[in-house]
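Exercise 7b. Backbone tokens:
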């Protein structure tokens, strides 16, 4: 006997409900809710969930997400979400959220828990930087332990790695999207790459700690990596033995389940006509044999550049879903 487990990841593209924001939340809900319902996920990793202010100085709330999930099965799911540094409420923007139909045993976020922020002194800053400062990641990663029943648990990691856009360099910006010099832009681009790689490294170190505690751990790492399958952050997370060169470490490699999808359909973003797979779901060797089906809901996916220009209510990311058939008894 087996039972089905459906794990999905979806970047909601700055889900929000701020006054004057276009398109309005009501319009966005009509576009996004059918996508969530088609997924029918048991476990759902969401990215870019913005928080809304509360009255009387109370912590911010994920009111836009509550509205999206209202009157859907997800409304009753357990929820794990990122919080501010004080742990009092969600971050202002770009929260990570895990929704689970199954019991959640534990949930936590990691931000420089395993990798300290490197010190860096910009070389193109104007005026020159007096000293090195800490180069912190933009957001945490989210880890939930899910009770699969039968004595099994799944470690689910939700990631949103930094986009490959140049980071701020003091005195080098001429305006939004405009730089004063090529060296300034190049250094900003370098710093963005360091931040993105640092996030991936922290996630990878967490994965290895899970393997240290349980060599056959059931692990799934999903989210918006802002990187293709062979780009450095994804390779760092996968730890393929083709990169490491030691087959004895194969049990610690993660496998991208989207590789089960035909190459012509293997993309989650369109950017100026170019198909890119930026959203991923990586699984541990113990979980992989149970994967039966993978779907990337990119039918009718709009081009990112056109969506941004036209303020489309939809996301320019396609949801990714993997379906597993779990044996009732652990072998």
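Sequence design result:
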């Amino acid at each position: 006997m087996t039972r089905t487990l459906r794990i999905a990841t979806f970047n909601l593209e700055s889900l929000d409900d701020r006054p004057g924001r276009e398109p309005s939340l009501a319009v966005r809900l009509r576009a996004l809710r059918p996508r969530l319902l088609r997924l029918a996920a048991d476990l759902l990793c969401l990215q870019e969930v913005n928080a809304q202010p509360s009255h009387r100085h109370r912590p911010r709330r994920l009111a836009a997400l509550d509205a999206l999930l209202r009157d859907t099965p997800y409304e009753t799911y357990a929820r794990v979400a990122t919080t501010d540094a004080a742990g009092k409420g969600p971050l202002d923007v770009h929260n990570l959220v895990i929704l689970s139909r199954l019991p959640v045993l534990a949930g936590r976020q990691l931000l420089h828990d395993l990798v300290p922020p490197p010190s860096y002194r910009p070389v193109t800053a104007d005026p020159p930087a007096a000293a090195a400062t800490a180069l912190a990641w933009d957001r945490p990663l989210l880890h939930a332990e899910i009770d699969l029943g039968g004595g099994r648990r799944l470690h689910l990691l939700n990631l949103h790695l930094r986009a490959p856009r140049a980071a701020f360099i003091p005195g080098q910006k001429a305006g939004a999207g405009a730089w004063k010099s090529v060296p300034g832009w190049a250094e900003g681009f370098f710093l963005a790459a360091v931040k993105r790689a640092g996030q991936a490294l922290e996630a990878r170190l967490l994965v290895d700690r899970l393997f240290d505690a349980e060599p056959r751990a059931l692990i799934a790492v999903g989210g918006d990596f802002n990187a293709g399958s062979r780009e450095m952050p994804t390779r760092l997370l996968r730890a393929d033995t083709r990169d490491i060169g030691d087959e004895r470490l194969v049990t610690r490699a993660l496998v991208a389940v989207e590789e089960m999808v035909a190459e012509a359909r293997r993309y989650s973003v369109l950017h100026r006509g170019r198909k890119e797979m930026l959203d991923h779901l990586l699984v541990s060797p113990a979980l992989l044999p149970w994967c039966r089906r993978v779907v990337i809901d990119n039918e009718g996916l709009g081009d990112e550049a056109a969506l941004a220009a036209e303020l489309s209510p939809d996301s320019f990311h396609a949801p990714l879903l993997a379906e597993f058939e779990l044996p009732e008894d652990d072998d």
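Instructor comment: Residues 21 and 182 are 34 Å apart (CA to CA). The chain has one domain: 2-327.
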